[in-house]
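Hi V.,

Quick status before I head out on leave. The structure for the redesign project is tokenized and pasted below; the design run finished overnight.
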């Protein structure tokens, strides 16, 4: 509520005497062309409770599609029945389907009344004492307290319910063998948390097996390189182990028929081995964007154990790519040791000379990048700087988005791979 009230376009909606928080958040489920055609104040408000959830379940009607159930807390069952009967009639007029059945304090809404009734029966026969609910509860606790909403899924069951029946696209062996999704087990849990100055989405994998690219992902062992970027950049992204991963992909893709013709394409610019790819991208790879929308500046920054060899290889690649690479320069840099390749003298000078303040020293960066030192992947966008550039020709949009401050994303691998996305406001 407090976050939404900081934005001019949403402030009137969430603080209006005529609009409740529940209506502004969930009203579209029941009203309008995309909803059930109900009037919120007349049909919904008299019975709508304070909790809502959605579940996905195995097929119950032999159509080989998973079932979806919407659980809505109810304060007046009689009023809810009148409204939902009206919703069924409205849906029938549009050749849509909707059905419902009541549980204790809730109404379960699904595609048909028969499915909703069966979901209620399943719920009654699956008490919270069963192991699956204990697992769910413990998984959710890992997110911490005060979540606005949570999501949880059993990976193997979800794949079996929804993906096995889908045609398998050509994945160039990326999702085959050890990385085939059908071999993955474990659970994923996600939570949405709000603070007065930010909103955060966190997702975690728990007891993941059969997804080595997640479990065995290289973890950062030093302070994240992204924190060393100049404080005034528009944004940046870094990843550890990218050179090793792409080197392995090169080896795999070029061992056989090389359907994508990767080998001749890279050979034309002087790269002939997986080792050169690893050398080029280093142990940590970053991309930085600075300048303005009219005159953007781009830089590729690497952390490398042999910056001299990396410097020579980049120069070789740039010479092979002329004249398309005209204007791109390469420089060796320390702290961390590596190379800088890019266009834009101002950004390159800031990075190579270490002049001025860094992202790591700014409050906005620190707020949206918790745990960045342990992240194998990190991304940051300075929204306070970017939004005015993008909306300069539309003052109304600029004013409505003016509270946005920064967006940060971090991802860590290991036994409990975690992705965290945080959006801050001023």
């Amino acid at each position: 509520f407090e976050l939404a009230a900081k934005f001019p376009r949403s402030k009137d909606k969430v603080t209006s005497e005529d609009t409740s928080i529940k209506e502004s958040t969930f009203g579209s489920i029941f009203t309008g062309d995309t909803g059930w055609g109900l009037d919120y104040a007349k049909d919904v408000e008299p019975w709508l409770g304070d909790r809502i959830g959605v579940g996905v379940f195995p097929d119950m009607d032999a159509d080989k599609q998973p079932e979806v159930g919407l659980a809505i807390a109810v304060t007046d069952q009689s009023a809810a029945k009148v409204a939902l009967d009206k919703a069924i009639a409205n849906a029938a007029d549009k050749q849509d389907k909707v059905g419902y059945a009541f549980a204790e304090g809730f109404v379960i809404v699904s595609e048909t009344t028969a499915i909703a009734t069966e979901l209620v029966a399943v719920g009654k026969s699956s008490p919270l004492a069963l192991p699956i609910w204990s697992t769910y509860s413990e998984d959710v606790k890992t997110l911490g307290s005060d979540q606005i909403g949570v999501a949880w899924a059993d990976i193997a069951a979800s794949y079996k319910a929804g993906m096995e029946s889908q045609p398998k696209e050509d994945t160039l062996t990326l999702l085959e063998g050890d990385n085939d999704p059908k071999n993955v087990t474990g659970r994923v849990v996600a939570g949405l948390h709000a603070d007065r100055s930010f909103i955060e989405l966190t997702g975690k994998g728990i007891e993941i097996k059969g997804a080595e690219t997640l479990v065995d992902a290289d973890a950062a062992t030093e302070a994240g390189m992204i924190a060393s970027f100049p404080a005034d950049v528009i944004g940046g992204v870094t990843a550890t182990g990218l050179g090793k991963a792409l080197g392995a992909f090169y080896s795999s893709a070029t061992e056989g028929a090389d359907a994508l013709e990767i080998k001749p394409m890279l050979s034309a610019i002087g790269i002939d081995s997986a080792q050169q790819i690893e050398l080029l991208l280093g142990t940590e790879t970053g991309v930085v964007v600075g300048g303005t929308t009219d005159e953007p500046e781009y830089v590729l920054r690497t952390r490398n154990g042999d910056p001299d060899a990396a410097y020579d290889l980049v120069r070789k690649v740039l010479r092979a790519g002329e004249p398309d690479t005209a204007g791109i320069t390469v420089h060796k840099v320390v702290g961390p040791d590596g190379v800088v390749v890019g266009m834009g003298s101002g950004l390159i000078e800031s990075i190579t000379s270490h002049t001025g303040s860094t992202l790591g020293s700014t409050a906005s960066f620190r707020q949206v990048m918790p745990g960045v030192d342990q992240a194998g992947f990190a991304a940051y966008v300075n929204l306070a700087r970017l939004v005015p550039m993008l909306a300069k020709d539309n003052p109304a949009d600029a004013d409505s988005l003016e509270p946005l401050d920064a967006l940060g994303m971090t991802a860590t691998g290991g036994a409990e791979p975690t992705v965290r996305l945080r959006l801050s406001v001023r």
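Above is the designed sequence. The chain has a mean pLDDT of 85.

G. will cover questions while I'm gone.

Best,
W.
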